[in-house]
Amino acid sequence: MSSLNLDLDSFAINPHYGFQWEPAQQCHVLLFPEGLVKLSESAAEILRLCQQPTTLEALVDELEQMFPGVEGLESDVREFLNDAREQEWISPA
Amino acid sequence: MMPENKSGSAPLKGDEDQSYIPMWLLAELTYACPVQCPYCSNPVQISANRKQELTTEAWIDVLRQARQLGAVQLGFSGGEPLVRSDLAELIREATSLGFYTNLITSAIGLDADKIAAFKEAGLKHIQISFQGSNRESNKKFGGTDSFNHKMEMTREVTRQKIPLGLNFVLHRQNLHQVGEFLETAELLGAEFVELANTQYYGWAKHNQEGLLPSKWQIEDAERVTNEFRRRHKGNMDVFFVSPDYYDDRPKKCSNGWATTFITVTPEGDVLPCHAAKIIPGLDFPNVKQHKLGDIWRSSDLFNKYRGTDWMVEPCASCPEKKIDLGGCRCQALMLTGDARNADPVCSLSPYHDRVTAITDQADGVFDLNEPVPLLFRNMKNAKQFNTDQS
Question: What is the value of pTM for the model shown?
Answer without folding.
Answer: 0.90
